[in-house]
Specification:
By secondary structure, the protein is mostly helical. It is built from 1 helix and no strands. It starts with 12 loop residues before the first helix and ends with a helix. The model has no long low-confidence stretch (mean pLDDT 86).
Length: 94
């Protein structure tokens, strides 16, 4: 047990109860702090993953649309060239 300078031993149930309550109080405070920190970290990580996924999807869609527009531009250019050639040939036979 705990001894003071005058060599008396504390056998008081109140002293033991207060010590246990202080230990329990400290454990609860630490545990709740850890629980709150863990929950906040979980939700922040979940939000970051969701934002990252959304960003990747937007980048993929942007790249896809850019490639489609480039392909359409090439097709349009080729069609206009062919049209010009056909008009030129058609004028030659008139």
């Amino acid at each position: 047990m705990f001894r003071f300078h005058d060599k008396t031993v504390i056998h008081s149930p109140f002293f033991l109860l207060m010590t246990l309550l202080e230990i329990l109080d400290t454990a609860v405070k630490i545990g709740l702090g850890a629980l709150i920190t863990g929950a906040i970290a979980y939700f922040i990580q979940k939000a970051n993953i969701s934002a990252s996924s959304t960003k990747e999807n937007l980048q993929f869609n942007r790249t896809l649309l850019t490639n489609i527009s480039v392909d359409i531009e090439e097709i349009t250019h080729t069609v206009l060239k062919m049209w010009a050639i056909f008009e030129y040939e058609a004028k030659k036979f008139k």
